[in-house]
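Review form for a predicted model. The reviewer records the input and the model, then writes brief findings.
Reviewer: anonymous (R2)
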Amino acid sequence: MINFKQQELIDRLLQAVKEQYPEVELINVTESPEDPADLLINVTAPDDEDRELELSEFTSQLSTDILQDYGYLILVMPRKNGKPAGVTA
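Model under review:
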C-alpha cells in the first residue's frame, strides 16, 4: 500500500519526467516483486533508444535523491510495448 509521502514523491517524480520527456505516459505503479516496500513506476518508453537511455539516467538520479532523502526506493521502469514486463495481452 502506498502511503501519503510515497504518493507525493511519485507525483513529483512523474512531474519532473513529464517536463523533460512529454511523450512518456504513466502505465501504473506497482510494488517490486523482490520487496513490497519498493515501488516501480511503469511508464511508456520513448521511441528513440538514445532518449530512453537519457530517461533512465535522469530518473536514476531522481530515485537516488529520494532514497537518500526519504528512505524510499522508487524506480521508473520504461516499457517498450506500453505494458509492464510479463503482460502480453
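Findings: The chain has a mean pLDDT of 93.
Further findings: The helical segments are 4-20, 49-70.
Recommendation: see findings above.
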